[in-house]
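batch_manifest entry 22 of 60
target: Arginine decarboxylase
source organism: Limosa lapponica baueri
requested by: lab member K.T.
priority: normal
notes from requester: please return tokens only, no post-processing; we will run our own comparison against the previous entry in this batch. if the run fails, retry once and flag.
--- input ---
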Amino acid sequence: MTFGTTLKSCRHLLETAKEQAVEVVGISFHLGSHGLEPQTFAQSVAAAQLAFEMGTELGYRMHLLDIGGGFPGTEDTRARFEEVAAVINSALDLYFPDGCGVEIIARPGRYYVTSAFTFAASVTAMGEVPGEQPGSEGR
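--- output ---
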């Protein structure tokens, strides 16, 4: 996971938020975007559902699930977007079915911009640039 906490720490964080009178409205996670297996997304949705249960037990009325981003945007990635989307949708249908009152959002920025351009360059010469010597002070 790129951002967030473990499920193990979740109850403590929710309890601490409750003690501080913080209104928790949902769960957010972001897995990152570096060659994740599609099942990682499904496992995270399942963990989010457990976190929702913890929040409900503590009296929160949580209604927002942010599944983050990191979705593949090119065909040469380990998991294609269609495969990842199918796994996520199956997990959402299982753990957060229609009518459960949870709004689901995602941040698909990488998916949209990964293939937006290609950069090509020709290397015409190479050389070694010596680093600063200690004590040279830029002279």
